[in-house]
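Input record, target 12 of the design panel.
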């Protein structure tokens, strides 16, 4: 009985560790991540991480680049993601809206969903503006707060949940030059303005504005953002673009709640 009780506990521990490893790899998409960095990120020894990685590679959940020795998400992750009903419905409903915004603004439009303490890009449509702004793509994952939609989502959460998200991502934010005081200021500013915004955070001269899509229970589950050069985003057509974004996101929220 003792041995039988311990086995399920160990199995849960392994699954949790594997999930943490997959999430850490996803955060380094598309550049990948090395073993030492991965071990530090998940707080496990090199042998333990290597052992789990071998299993994940066998199951096509992870691949290792032969030249760089860095790890990337495997094809099975993509295939499983296509079967997720929640995201499939969201993409299906939102795609026409982000395509309309791309045509109307000429800018790059992103559909991003919340995934725990992260934000995951689900779709991207590039506008016709000659200088195209592409800082992330479908499947890319970043901590909530890194990007306009991430800030828009955080701004709609309760204070206790915001604190939990920021604490969980504390070390990860350092990669983007973000401190917790700076993020708290950005969240507060987003609340005051009524939308999330960034300017030259990931790429100099690139800015974005985003709004959260709200579920039936009032939770921010995703969002849409407009990204372009700082001059285009915050220029003379800013209010017009914000109004179009607000119209589309409001309609998506209503539609998703009634789906």
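The sequence produced for target 12 reads:
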């Amino acid at each position: 009985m003792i041995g039988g009780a311990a086995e399920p506990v160990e199995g849960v521990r392994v699954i949790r560790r594997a999930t943490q490893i997959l999430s850490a790899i996803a955060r380094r998409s598309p550049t990948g991540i090395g073993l030492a960095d991965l071990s530090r990120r998940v707080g496990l020894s090199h042998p333990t991480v290597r052992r789990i990685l071998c299993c994940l590679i066998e199951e096509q959940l992870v691949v290792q680049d032969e030249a760089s020795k860095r790890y990337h998400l495997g094809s099975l992750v993509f295939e499983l993601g296509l079967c997720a009903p929640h995201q499939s419905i969201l993409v299906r409903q939102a795609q026409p809206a982000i395509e309309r915004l791309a045509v109307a603004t000429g800018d790059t439009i992103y559909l991003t969903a919340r995934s725990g303490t992260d934000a995951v890009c689900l779709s991207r449509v590039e506008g016709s503006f000659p200088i195209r702004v592409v800082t992330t793509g479908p499947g890319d994952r970043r901590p909530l707060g890194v990007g306009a939609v991430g800030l828009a989502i955080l701004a709609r959460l309760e204070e206790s949940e915001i604190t939990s998200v920021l604490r969980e991502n504390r070390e990860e934010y350092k990669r983007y030059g973000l401190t917790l005081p700076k993020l708290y200021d950005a969240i507060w500013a987003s609340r005051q303005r009524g939308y999330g915004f960034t300017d030259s955070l990931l790429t100099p001269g690139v800015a974005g504005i985003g709004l959260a899509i709200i579920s039936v229970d009032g939770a921010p589950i995703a969002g849409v953002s407009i990204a372009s050069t700082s001059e285009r985003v915050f220029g003379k057509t800013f209010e017009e673009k914000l109004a179009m974004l607000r119209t589309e996101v409001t309609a998506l929220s209503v539609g998703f709640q009634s789906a």
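The longest strand covers residues 220-229.
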